[in-house]
Amino acid sequence: MQLGLEIGESPELAGDIGRRLTFNPTEHVVQRAFGSVCSQMMPADKAGIRQRRQQQQQQSKQQEPQGKQASKMVPKITTDSDTEAGIDPPDLLTSDPDHVKSTHRVRKTSENGPVPSEDLSVEVVDSQPLIREREAREEQKRGEMKHKEETALTIALECFFPYLVAGFGMVAAGMVLDIVQHWPVFIQVSEVFILVPALLGLKGNLEMTLASRLSTAANLGYMDNRKEQWRLILGNMALTQAQALVVGFLAAVAAIVFGWIPEGKFDIHHAFLLTASSMVTASLACAILGTVMIAVVILSRKCKVNPDNVATPIAASLGDLTTLALLSWISNVLWRAITVEDGARFWMAPTITVAFFLSAPFWMYISHKNPHTREVLRHGWEPVICAMVISSGGGLILDFAVSAYHGIAVFTPIINGVGGNLVAVQASRLSTWLHTRGKPGKLPEGAIHGCPNPVRTFFSSGVHSRTARVLFLLVVPGHLIFLYLIAYANAGHTTITAIFTVVYLIAAMIQVAILLFVANWLVHYMWLKGNDPDNCTIPYLTALGDLLGTGLLAVAFHTLWLIGDRDSDVGD
User: Fold this and answer.
1) For residues 501 and 494, what is the distance between their CA atoms, to the nearest angstrom?
2) Which of 318, 304, 308 is nearest to 202 (CA)?
3) Rounded Cα distance, 169 and 326, in Å
4) What percentage of the chain's residues is helix, strand, coil (to nearest 5)?
5) Sign of torsion, CA 59 62 68 69?
6) Cα–Cα distance for residue pair 403/410, rounded to 1 Å
7) pLDDT tens for residues 449-499?
8) I need a labelling partner for 418 at 20 to 30 A (CA). Which of 267, 427, 460, 548 fits?
9) What is the DSSP string of 83-117?
10) End-to-end Cα separation, the chain, in angstroms
11) Please, which residues bridge with residue 123 across strands?
12) What pLDDT is stored for residue 502 in this prediction?
């Protein structure tokens, strides 16, 4: 039988055989590793080994191109009995990027017992060609992405349909919020309104970030291999569950604090209701939307459509509606549990909170064991938590605005969602462009250094400026369609007049213009700092979109009230 060993430059690859034979990779690899074995051989055997080794080294030097560094040599042990039997040594070097971990296996015995040291011979093989071949394939993929620049028409056609689908979902979410704002749980526990932007923002903090990561991986060809594809999927699903539970808990804490500060009252039952509703909604919504995102990216790849243009808008098409429906239903069930029958089922909310809180370490462990999500788990919390705090600020504005202007509820998910969707497309495309030209830490040629010029952001001839113009031009026609749907369904508490439409569209355009400009700067800034924009930028941008959207919408309604358009009782 044959005995195989592959040892690289790292001592970790030596495995058990390196420790047993006192392997030192820095000093005379073959001589020090197998000196104790060779010392037991006959002089003729030693001379034969040295002669074969010298011949192979001379052949390697002759084949190596001039000016190149010496190739990395990997010792491999075989037995003379295998050679005499006509058995070729196994090809331990594969093109699998994980072969370093998966192929350094050692079989110290044959079927007939231990292999005698006299039968050992050393063969040196060259691993550098396979490494160069893999690097060449990656460079070829990057080169293809560099030269694949889309026209404005292509970008518009690929973005507009998912944008409309997402808008229909946001219109439905607005209608749901317009209805549930009159439910007892939203009236008695008004802090639930603070949860709305924070939990709706999860689609930006987690789902759009997931879509951006998967889109970049798909564009770079990392999802073409089925094994690697499943590893990416499982790791990212576990990561989003862990992040959803933590963010849901922190969002509930923020809502409790923001609700307690102005009133100075604290109700333990309301606190558990907010916490349980937030954590359950976040977990279930991320599981549903994560599955949809994975299917969209894989299907886009098979249909030869750029996932960056499709995945992030579709993430929001069902995101707002699913999240808001889950939050309303769960909070209403828990509210009935503490009010009906004198609170006989008051234990439901605390039990749910503890159960979901204890499940978070399990998801963290799964994502930590996955190499694709380990770094995000360690270093990806800051943008997600900061984005949650920013979105909660928007929720605080919404809590006060709804009490003064009932008509604002139906438009909040729409204006926030449109801004977040469009800026997420731009951020995802910028991130993919940077990934195809280098690695985080150094800006490639043609990238923006420092604070960008607003004129260059929208009016230069580059592909990013072209994309920004297309996305900005989608704002007006999209919102007009969504306003028509609301008017046709007689939803909301405001008549959609010409003056209302003008003021509303001005607020929406200001929001998207600011977001696209900030995205152009933030993506390059994160890349220069060595961070992956797929994990860092979209949470900040969508949270900023929620804050700007809610604030500008409140200003728009107050402006309409000042100029005499006080039609706030429509739909009551």
Assistant:
1) 11
2) 318
3) 14
4) 70, 5, 25
5) positive
6) 14
7) 666 777 777 877 777 888 889 899 999 999 999 999 888 887 777 778 889
8) 460
9) HHTTPPPP----S-TTHHHHS-----EETTEEPPG
10) 85
11) 76
12) 93
Tokens of 519: 């995205």
Query: Quick check: 197 pLDDT over 70?
Result: yes
Taking only the tens place, the pLDDT of each residue in 302-348 is 887 777 677 666 666 677 788 889 999 999 999 988 887 556 678 88
Q: Hey, what's the torsion of the CAs at 187, 191, 192, 195, to 10 degrees?
A: 160
**How many C-beta atoms surround the C-beta of residue 362 within 10 A?**
12
User: Is residue 270 a contact partner of residue 300, using CB atoms and an 8 Å limit?
Assistant: no
Q: Which of 123, 90, 119, 108 lies closest to 15, judged by CA?
A: 108
Give me 159's structure tokens: 């973005």
The closest alpha carbon to 214, from 159, 291, 155, belongs to: 291
Q: pTM of the prediction?
A: 0.63
d(C-alpha 542, C-alpha 421), whole Å: 8
DSSP conformational letter for 496: -
For residue 551, give both structure tokens. 């604030």
- Could you tell me the sign of the dihedral formed by the alpha carbons of 365, 370, 375, 376, in that order? negative
Pull the structure tokens for residue 467: 């994309």
Q: What is the DSSP letter of 5?
A: -
User: Rounded to the nearest 10 degrees, how much is the dihedral formed by the CA atoms of 145, 151, 154, 156?
Assistant: 120
* Residue 493: strand, helix, or coil: coil
Using pLDDT thresholds of 50, 70 and 90, give the confidence band for residue 136: low
pLDDT at 230: 85
pLDDT for the residue numbered 482? 92
Q: Assign residue 189 a region: left if phi > 0, alpha if psi is -120 to 50, beta otherwise?
A: beta
Rounded-to-integer distance, Cα 557 and Cα 551, Å: 10
Query: How do residues 83-100 score in pLDDT, each as one tens digit?
Result: 433 444 444 444 444 444
Token pair, residue 100, equals 């370093």
Contact partners, residue 257, CB within 8 Å, separation at least 6 = none
* Residue where the block lists tokens 């889109």: 215
Sign of CA dihedral 227, 229, 232, 233: negative
Residue 93 dihedral angles phi and psi, to the nearest 5° = -90, 120
Number of Cβ within a 10 Å radius of residue 17: 17
Element housing 542 (H / E): helix 533-562
